[in-house]
Amino acid sequence: MEYRKLGHSGFKVPVLSLGTGTFGGTNEFFKAWGSSGVAEATRLVDICLEAGLTMFDSADVYSGGDAEKILGAAIKGRRDKVIISTKGTFGGGNPNGFGSSRYHLLNAVDASLGRLGTDYIDLYQLHGFDAQTPVEETLSTLNHLVEACKIRYIGCSNFSGWQLMKSLAVSERYGWTRHVAHQAYYSLIGRDYEWELMPLALDQGVGAIVWSPLGWGRLTGKLRRGQPLPATSRLHGKLSTESGPQVSDEHLYRVVDALDEVAKETGKSVPQIAINWLLQRPSVANVIIGARNEEQLRQNLAAVGWNLTPEQVAKLDASSATPRAYPYWHQASFERNPPPV
Q1: What domains does the chain contain, in order, with CATH numbers?
Q2: Which of 31, 84, 49, 70 is closest to 232 using CA atoms?
Q3: Distance between CA 316 and CA 173 in Å, rounded?
Q4: pLDDT by residue (tens digit) across 210-267?
Q5: Ordered alpha helix ranges (H), the chain
């Protein structure tokens, strides 16, 4: 398993991590992802560690906190062998039960530590930007938590470019711990990350941790023109399809056609190719893979240890390209301001 430095830090992470959104399945939204209990989760962790995948990603809202509990049980007795990343900000229950205020983050981190059964979190990420809390309050709180040794590195997720850049500037101004990771959606059918966030990441030293590399379950290799959805798919649920990234059928099938061509050339599966393509993109430090079961996990683990050829990458690039929004199409015409890819 290849390891890469996480952004502008000395911390090295494996290029793959296992997402725990499939642990628990205790509500409608997450049940569509999976419902692994402690026994199955422990087996999945065993397989990951055997393959050199040591990083596990969770969040306090995954199955209402049950995903963190199950992960904590699955790694019990081997905390020193794993890297834990989790997230906070979302939530509910009372007016202070969500957001990135000092009040909420201090409570959220302590609650996550309890569910995970650990006294520190390797990477703690803000799950979204809280526009109602001063950035200074949020970052000073995270800096305090680092100094208290409850978390070791900080990151964010689903930020826009200006939100991330403002956060970095505030950390720089006060000498506080800065974000070294941005957990972002990026896939062959969702390349918006490249427009603003990738150039920012390269310029500021923020490593990308990619979520949903298979485009919300659309690049599993089971979707084809004129064919019904597979029997087991999160895309059956209206809640999942409406809350996830949108893509037109024609664009999806154009990308799938290219993936099928590369699959024939390489002997690899569609998901393996989609993940491998991401690992060759600038700024990407880690890709989060999911697995409902052992078979899916082993398939996804096989996405590493080989590389697509430049010609195959170019074929996938061309099939997945979309018109850039303003001002990015205009900037691309200025030779001193080229896009990163």
Answers
A1: 3-331 (3.20.20.100)
A2: 31
A3: 41
A4: 999 999 999 999 888 877 766 666 565 666 567 778 899 999 999 999 999 999 999 9
A5: 28-31, 38-51, 66-74, 102-116, 135-147, 161-174, 197-204, 238-243, 249-266, 270-279, 294-301, 310-320, 328-331
Active site residue: 62, 124, 153, 193, which one?
A: 62
323 vs 334: CA distance, rounded Å:
17
Contact 83, 15 (CB under 8 A): no
* 62 has catalytic annotation: yes
Residue 327, preceding peptide bond in cis (omega within 30° of 0): yes
Model's pTM, two decimal places?
0.94
Rounded to whole angstroms, the Cα distance separating 115 from 123 reads 16
Residues 6+ apart with CB under 8 A from 101: 130, 133, 137, 138, 141
Q: What are the CB-based long-range contacts (under 8 Å, 24+) for 305-311?
A: 306/266, 306/268, 306/276, 307/276, 307/280, 308/262, 308/266, 308/273, 308/276, 308/277, 308/280
